[in-house]
Amino acid sequence: MHKARYFYSHWELYAMLIPGVAFLLLFKYTPMYGILIAFQDFNIFGGITGSEWIGLEQFRKLFHSDEFYQVFRNTLLISLYKIVILFPIPIVVALLLNEIRRMIFKRVVQTIVYLPHFLSWVIIAGLFVNLLSTSNGLVNQIIELLGGTPISFLIDNAYFRSILVFTAGWKETGWNAIVFIAAIAGIEQEQYEAASIDGAGRIKQMLLITLPGIVPVIILMFILRIGHLLDAGTEQILTMYNPLVYETGDVIGTFVYRIGLGQMDYSFSTAVGLFNSVVGFVIIILGNALSRKYAGRSIW
């Protein structure tokens, strides 16, 4: 009875949950019905209810595919490169921006580093294709001026992953720093005043107050990031890669796109996507457990 009275007395707050819950049900949970395709020999004309049930055959096909293991390796490598190289950079950017005292200059810098996030990958891919072109690209012109020979960056497996990491960092570093900037803003100013009285300089305050103050947010963002370990940036890669760099650039997302839409093998591509989701779920659970055990902090 007490819970019922509480509900009726705060019904306006519960009513505000309706749009969010409806969104989750409509766009997150309802499409999960399509997982059944992974266990069928799906026929586009027969639909889910009219397709033959074949059990785990698609998964056996998946794990016996040499191409999939190459794709899986590429996905892990690209994601790990992005985590190791790119994850710390927004933290550093947030720490440095926090030290800027001239507000006009600070806002200009923030606008510059935030702006690439609002560009689509199609625009960014076109920009870097022109910059890295072997005929008249700015980068190769500089290489030639320095006495080198032009490099075909976007069709060379030796450079393609590095280009993916660099462009992802250029696009998202400023945007990802927003979370850490907000976390820094929540640190009590009295701590800085006390440290200043004790003689701590700006660098010591950054290392001993600011950085420890945002550790919980860093852990949260890291756990969420490793949950997307098998999401190496499908949209980015689709706009930049080509058959010559499938060896190093083809990832699970692009593989699903090529097989599912290119060859219309919907059952196999659904099986690959389901495998991707299950592995991501397991990783985020393990990451949260390890964080709770060794760092004393976790999402739940």
TrEMBL record:
Keywords: Membrane, Transmembrane, Transmembrane helix, Transport. Belongs to the binding-protein-dependent transport system permease family. The keyword Transcription regulation does not apply. Its main location: membrane. It is found in: Cell membrane; Membrane. It is a multi-pass membrane protein. It comes from Paenibacillus qinlingensis. Residues 72-287 form the ABC transmembrane type-1 domain. PROSITE patterns: ABC_TM1. This is Aldouronate transport system permease protein. The chain crosses the membrane at residues 6-27, 76-97, 118-139, 206-226, 266-290.
